[in-house]
Amino acid sequence: MAGPQVNDARLSLEIRTKSVEQTLIPLVTQITTLVNHKERPRVTEKTTQALVRVGQAVCLAVERFVSVGQTIATENPEISADMCQACAEARNAGTSIQHLTSVDATSHTNSQQFAEKTAMVRAARQLLSAVTKVLLLADKVIVKQLLISKNKVSNTLNELYSVTTFTDFVNCFSQFGNEMVELAHLTGDRQNDLKSDKHRAQMGAARAVLEKSTMMLLPSCKVCLRHPDCETAKQNREGVFKLMRGALNMIHHIVMDEGAGQANGHVSPVHNGDSGIGLDNAHSACKAFKEFEDQVEMIRMTGVTASCKEKLTGALEILVETTQDFTDSAYTSHQHRESILQTCDRLKSEMSVLLRISKNQRNSNNPSPEMEKAILRTLTAAKSLNKQLQDTAMDQASELFKANEDHEILKHLKAAGGSGDQQRVAEMTVKFEEHMQQLEEVCKLFRHIATNEQLVIAAEHNEFVLKNLGPLTLLSAQTLSQYPGSKITQENLDMFADSWESQINDLSIMVKEINDVCQGRGEKPVYLSLPRPGICPAMPPKHGTNSRGLRPVKLDAEEQAKIAKLGLEMKLITSEMDAETDKWEEPDNDIVKRAKNMSSMAFSMYLFTRGEGPLKTTQDLFIQAEYFSEEGTKLYKTVRDFSDKVPLCVHREELMTNLERIPACCQQLHSILRTQTSGKTATFNKVDNAIQETKNLMNIIAKVVTTSFVCATKYNIDYRKSPGSSRRWRSSGEARSTASSDNESMYSSSMSDGLNKSSCSNKQFSASNTSLDRQPSGSNLDPSSH
Q1: How far apart are CA 634 and CA 564, in angstroms?
Q2: Which of 6, 38, 321, 632 has the fewest CB atoms within 10 Å, i.e. the most exposed one?
Q3: How crowded is residue 482: how many other Cβ atoms within 10 Å of its Cβ?
Q4: What CATH code is carried by the domain that includes residue 67?
Q5: The dihedral formed by the CA atoms of 345, 346, 351 and 353, expressed in degrees to the nearest 10
Q6: What is the spatial distance between Cα 422 and Cα 400, in angstroms, rounded to a whole number?
Q7: Whether 80 contacts 74, CB under 8 Å
Q8: Residue 144 and residue 426: Cα distance in Å, rounded?
Q9: Is the model's pLDDT at 652 over the cut of 50?
C-alpha cells in the first residue's frame, strides 16, 4: 500500500478486477465516438452541437469521478499523493476534451482537423490512463480493507489457540465468528470481482477450506478444554488450526497477487494451474499432451530441425512420464495398464517413423504426402493414449463410488469409538487409511486429465482436503474411544464424519464435471465458488414458470457467484435480525414473532443459494417467497397498530417512513413471483430477482423492528421491550432511489459506481452516486431497481 509500490508501471496496464474493467467501458465508448467524429472531413451543425454536449458530459463526469477519488485520497494517506496526481491528470484531460469538442469544426482546414484529431487522441489516452490509475488506487483500498479483516481473523485465531478456560473460549469464539462473517463477505466480493478464472478458483478453494475448518474448530477446541491431557485431541485441534492458517495465508497471497506457489512460505513452480495449497505438482498429462501435439503440428511449418527434434523428443518423454501415475497405481486394472503401455509403444513407434521420414524431407515448408500421413498417425496415437488415460481415471472413480465404503467405515468407527473399543478403532483406522489412499489416487488421476486450470485446481483442492481431513477424522475417533462417555467427543467425531461425507460429495461432483468436459458434454465447469452444486432446478408451471419437467439447470460461474453473493448478504441480514429480536425482554409479542418467522424463511432461501436446506427446487423457493411476502403484510398491520401508540416525534416519522415501504415491496415480490418465464436464463433471472427483493424487504423489516424498540423504550409504551440502538444500514433499493437524474448522469454514474465499488470502505460519497451494488453492464438487473 506504500507510495513507491503505486508508481509501478504495471499500475496503468494490469486490470485484475471486473469492476475496474466495466467502469472503463462507457468511457472508452464515449472517447471512441469523439475520436471517430474528428476523422470526418465535414460534420453538420447538429452533429457539432451533439459533440459539444458529449464533451461537456465527459468533463462533468470526470469532475464527479475526481471528487470521489479525492475523498478516497483524504481518507487513505498512504495513496494520497498518487491519487491526487492521477485525479489532476484526469481533470486536465477532461478539460482538454471539452475544449476540443467545443471548437467549430465546420470551417477548419484539413491540417487543422488533423491537428485536432491528434490532440483528441492524446487527451483521450491521458484520460484513460489517469482514470485507470485512480480506479486501481481505489482498488488498493479494498485490498487493504480485506487484509485488515484477514489479520483480525488471524489474530483472534491465535488467541483461540491459547485460551485455557471455557469462559474465555466462548467470548473469543464469539468475536472470531463476527470477524469470520466480515472476512467471508469481503473475500466473496473479491472472488466474484476477479477477472482471472484461475484466481477465482483459487480464492474459492481457500474459502472452502476456511469454511469447513471453522465448523470443525468449535468441537475440536471444546474437546481439548474438556480433556486437556488427551494427546489425540491436541493433535486433532492442531490439524484444524493448521488448515485455517494455511487458508488465510492463501487468501493473502491471492489478494496481493504474489504467486500461488508461495502459500506455504516458499516458491514452487506453477504447472497447469497450481491451486497454491501446497501439493507436490508435476506435469499433468493434459498439459503434456497439448505441448506434444503443438510440437508435432509445428513440424508442418518448420520441418524437423535439430532444435525441433530435441523439443519433440523431450515433449514425448514428459508425456510418457505422466502416464506412469496411471500404470503405477495399485487401483488400475490389469487391462487398462496393458492398454496404456501398448498405446505408449505405438506412439513411440509412430514418432520414430515421423523422424525417419523427416530426414528425406527436402522442402521444410511444404511437407510431402508421406510426411503428412506420418504426422496424422502420430497425432492419432497421442489422442488414443489420452482417451485411454481418461477411461482409466473414470473407471477407478466409478468403482470407488459404486462400493460406497465411506458410510460403512464411518459407521463402524463411530460404533467402536462410542463403545470404547480401541482395538476395533485401530482395525477400522487401517481400512479407512486404505480407502483414503484410493480417494487420493482418484484425485491425482483426475488432476492429470483435467482440461483447464479451474478443474485442475478443483482436483488439487479435493486431494488436499481429503489428505488432511482423513487423519483428523481418525484422531477424533481415537479420542472418542478413550472417553466413550463424553458427549463432546461424540459431537466432535460426528462433525468430522459429516465433513468427510460432504467432501466425498464434492469429489463426486468434480469427477462428473471433469468427465463431462473430457467427453465434450460440459459447457462450463462448476467452480468452487458458492453455491457448490451449481444447480438451479427447473420449476413446474406453477408460479408462472413454463417448464417441461424437473430437469436441473446448471448455472455458469458468473450466475453462481451472483446468486451466492445475494444469499450471503441475506444471511448477514438474518443474523442481524436474530441478534436484535433475541434481546427483547418479552419475545412472545407479535412484532418479534413475525420478524423471527420472516428471518427463518429468508435463511432457508439463503441455504437454497448454497444448494442446501429444505428448499430443493425453484418451485420451493418461490412458494417460500410467497409466504414471506404474506408474513410481511401481516407484520405491516401489526406495527401499524403499534405506531398509533407512539407520539408525534422524529422516531415515529422514521418508523412510518420505513413502514409504508413494506406494502410496495411485498407487492413487488408478488409481481416477480407471478411473472411468466421460460428457459434457463429467464428462470435464473426470476430466482435472482426474488432473492434480491426478499433481501430488500428484510432490510426494511430490520429497520422497522429496531425503530419499534426505540419508540417502545424511549416513550415507555407498554407494549414490549426490544434492544437499544442498532447499526443502521442502507438497503440497495433505498440506495438506488437516490441516483442522480441529470441527463448526463448515465455516463458519470457509471464511472462513479465503479470507483465506489472499488472503495466501499469510504462512507462520505455524494448522494448523486448510484448504488454500490450496481454494475454498469449487468445482464441480470432487478426490476425493482428501476
Answers
A1: 29
A2: 321
A3: 17
A4: 1.20.120.230
A5: 120
A6: 27
A7: yes
A8: 48
A9: yes
Amino acid of residue 319: L
Separation CA 214–CA 216 (nearest Å):
5
In a domain, 743, yes or no: no
Question: Please, which residues have CB within 8 angstroms of residue 18's CB and are 6 or more apart in sequence?
Answer: 192, 193, 194, 195
Q: Flag whether 120 is in a domain.
A: yes
278, 264 contact by CB (below 8 A):
yes
Residue 191 lies in a domain: no
- Identify the residue whose cell numbers are 481415537: 478
Measured distance CA(384)–CA(341) in Å, rounded: 12
The per-residue DSSP string of 233-249 comes to: HHHHHHHHHHHHHHHHH
With contact defined as beta carbons under 8 Å apart, do 209 and 246 qualify?
Answer: yes
Average pLDDT of the residues in 214-223: 92
DSSP labels for 531-564? STT-EEE---SGGGEE-SS--EEE--HHHHHHHH
Measure the CA–CA gap between 671 and 657, rounded to whole angstroms.
22
Q: What percent of the chain has pLDDT over 90?
A: 29
Q: What one-letter code names the amino acid at 684?
A: F
Per the structure, the count of domains in the chain is: 3
Burial of 746 (0-12, 13-18, 19+ CB in 10 A): middle
Question: Rounded to an integer, what distance in angstroms lies between the CA atom of residue 503 and that of residue 199?
Answer: 22
Q: What is the pLDDT of residues 582-604, one digit of tens each?
A: 656 565 678 888 888 888 888 88
- The Cα 577–Cα 582 span in angstroms is 9
From 396, 416, 446, the end of a domain falls on: 396
Cell digits for 607? 441455504
Which CATH number covers residue 309? 1.20.120
Q: Residue 723: is the preceding peptide bond cis (ω within 30°)?
A: no
CA–CA separation, 684 vs 538, rounded Å? Answer: 9
- How far apart are the C-alpha atoms of 753 and 65, rounded to whole Å? 9
Q: Are 517 and 286 in contact (CB under 8 A)?
A: no
Do residues 192 and 561 touch, judged by C-beta distance below 8 A?
Answer: yes
pLDDT of residue 203: 92
Distance of CA 219 to the CA centre of its chain: 28
pLDDT tens-digit readout, 653-697: 888 988 989 988 888 888 888 887 777 778 888 888 888 889 889
pLDDT tens string 616-644 = 888 888 888 988 998 898 888 888 888 88
Q: Which residue has the cell 430443493?
A: 616
* CA nearest neighbour of 401 among 510, 273, 328: 510
- Domain containing residue 48: 3-143
Determine contact, residues 766/68, Cβ cutoff 8 Å: yes
Which run of H or E residues covers position 412?
A: helix 405-418
- pLDDT per position as a tens digit, 253-269: 998 875 444 333 333 33
The residue from 92, 119, 143 where one domain ends is 143
Burial class (CB in 10 A: 0-12, 13-18, 19+), 523: exposed
Whether 346 is in a domain gets the answer yes
User: Which amino acid belongs to residue 762?
Assistant: N
Burial class (CB in 10 A: 0-12, 13-18, 19+), 272: buried
pLDDT at residue 348 is higher than 50: yes
What does the alpha-carbon distance between residue 648 and residue 650 come to, in Å, rounded to a whole number? 7
Cβ contacts of 186 within 8 Å, gap of 6 or more: 145, 146, 149
Task: Tell me if 418 sits within 8 A of 483, measured CB to CB.
Answer: no
Residues 246 and 265: their CA atoms lie apart, in Å, by: 10
Residue 104 to residue 82: CA distance in whole angstroms: 36
- CA dist 200 → 263, 275, 325 (Å): 16, 11, 28
Strand-strand pairing, 535-537 and 552-554:
antiparallel
Q: How far apart are the C-alpha atoms of 521 and 554, rounded to whole Å?
A: 12
> Burial code of 689-723, b = ≥16 C-beta within 10 A, e = fewer?
bbbbbbbbbbbbbbbbbbbbbbbbbeeeeebbbbb
Cα separation, 393 vs 391, whole angstroms: 6
Residue with cell 472470531: 176
